[in-house]
Amino acid sequence: MPSSPDARHEPTPPGELVVPADLASVRALAEHLRQACSRAGIDDMALFELELALVEAANNIVEHGYVGQDAGSITLAIAIESGRVHLTLTDTGSPVPPAFFANTALPEGHATSGRGAAIIHGCTDEVAYESRDGVNRLVLTKGG
């Protein structure tokens, strides 16, 4: 079982971490990713891009998925096979709008939002999202 940097994090199977859906806990998700990738020998640039995509996705869950709802949680499962990293984020917040991950263009000029999907796509090789039975599942894949 991975050690968690905060007692609020629930014990989970190896490779998985559950944290409260708040911005402070996003750092714990990023640290969990760094540790897993370090143990697996994932190169620094791939790790940097994965961490950026993870933080963007998790921040969106916190800022948009749980707006107007009771506090929830975010689960991060990490699987690494032959240098290929699969991150699976699950939550029970509001689902992502249907076209969100299809829009990979950056917004114009000085827009302060709207970059999420482009950042996530630009930092990963594959993005898969589904929302079923109240559970949102985002899988980000890189490498291999």
Describe the structure.
With 144 residues, this protein is α+β, with helices and mostly antiparallel strands. It has a single domain (16-143), classed as 2-Layer Sandwich (Heat Shock Protein 90), CATH 3.30.565. The protein is built from three helices and five strands; from the N terminus they run E-H-H-E-E-H-E-E. The chain has helices spanning 23-40, 44-65, 116-123; strands at residues 16-20, 73-81, 84-91, 126-132, 135-143. The chain has a five-stranded antiparallel sheet, with helices on one face. Residues 1-13 have low confidence and may be disordered.
Q: Which value, in Å, is the CA radius of gyration?
A: 15 Å
Distance between the termini: 26 Å
* Percent of residues in beta strands: 25-35%
Structural class: alpha+beta
Write out key terms for the chains shown.
144 residues, Heat Shock Protein 90, 3 helices, 5 strands, disordered N terminus
How do the helices and strands line up, and which of them pair or pack?
Elements: E1 16-20, H1 23-40, H2 44-65, E2 73-81, E3 84-91, H3 116-123, E4 126-132, E5 135-143
Helix pairs in contact: 1-2, 2-3
